[in-house]
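INFO batch 0412 | record 1 of 1 | parsing
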Amino acid sequence: MPRIPRGETQGGIYHIINRGNMRMQVFDDKEDYEYFLTLLKTGFERENIELHAYCLCLMPNHFHLLLVPQGEKSLSKFMQWVMTSHVRYYHRKNKTSGYIWQGRFKSFLVEKESYYLTLFRYIEANALRAKLSTTAQDWRYGSLAERVFKSRTLLGTLKARGRPKNEKKL
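INFO prediction complete | emitting tokens
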């Protein structure tokens, strides 16, 4: 039976999550993180998708993104391409086969400003809660460091849409 197509609102802000199958680690080293970031950047150029407010966090076994689809079905096309490309890379590098990710990515439309601010803080403090860094801005694969230190190294000078209100409180 085919999957039910996702509802997708052009211009809506989506919280995107995917986790390793059985919560396994999918990013083992710097090379894995860098490759996934390269896939994201290439995907943004391929599809009509924007990274909202330059907000993202890659963790050893999952990731969070705030994305804004600008075209019809662009979110699904983008994520399908990124996830499939990553799985091919992972299997080639590790000489494995089978499922890497828990399933289809999860997407949640962000509708309320109060939820948006909470979510923004949640995403950028994820590594701190997981005790991967001593401060949230110390995590190399999260966007908070780039916001605090005003440098764009994760995805280069990628055009990001929007800016959180009360950004200094994040």
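INFO post-check: Confidence is low (pLDDT under 50) at residues 159-170.
INFO record closed
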